[in-house]
Give the backbone structure.
Amino acid sequence: MTQLEPVSKPGVKPPKFGSLPVPAHVAIVMDGNGRWANARGLTRVEGHKAGEVALLDVVAGAIEAGVKNLTVFAFSTENWKRSPEEVRFLMGYNVEVLRRRRDQLNAWGVRVRWAGRRPRLWSSVIRELEAAEALTAKNKTLTLTMCVNYGSRVEMLDAINAMSADVASGVLKSGSVTEKTLSKYLNSGFLPDVDLFIRSSGEQRISNFLLWQSAYAELVFDDTPWPDFNRKSLWNAIVAFTNRDRRFGGAVDKPAK
Ligand code: IPE
Ligand code: IPE
Ligand code: MG
């Protein structure tokens, strides 16, 4: 049993943010574990192990900053391409981390949710995700959504197939699909729009993460590999976000004087 820790760290306080409100929904591609480990002469799985502390620190930092939704990419539908050893490690590791950290998350008022596909995902992982969801269902401080066996394109295809079946059986009226309808069919459909999309490790790509919800997300790419990422890295990204100008397609005429 891990020691339960307070959310705040002595002497580490959120900075002054810019003029926009703190993002309600932050999504993070937790990337760079393997490179972090290999650069230190370690195997890739050692990098994954080092990512656990980063995640907990970032959750704490999100709570301190007032973020309500934090969604993290833990395993993609494309990550099955990795070696059987790495895939096996990641499946077992997800179970372990959830078991080891759920009481801490619960004590912080975090609601844990899962977004992803059932097919192929190890049943032990699904069980652990569902146990964490049940334990934390009533929590309101922050919702932490773990994207495990998640991929945007396949969830859209799953949704289209389910919708066409519902049209065929008369449950759904042909031609009636709205943005709201699609959200109901996505496994990540309960998530609000992403305000701030962060990727660690220096890679500057989306990698099939939350394509629907990130239509107007502000993107922040940080060179820090995930094992070295912490609440201060999150706060830096929030500072950048709060100094941006979000227009959502609109425009304001302001000729320089
Ligand atoms: C992210 O780190 C974690 C997962 C994808 C599970 P990587 O394992 O992708 O690390 P790099 O990008 O190879 O360094
Ligand atoms: C995205 O990272 C998936 C996760 C962080 C879980 P990847 O490392 O798999 O993405 P690519 O292959 O570099 O695009
Ligand atoms: Mg990677």
Summary: Residues 114 and 130 are 8 Å apart (CA to CA).
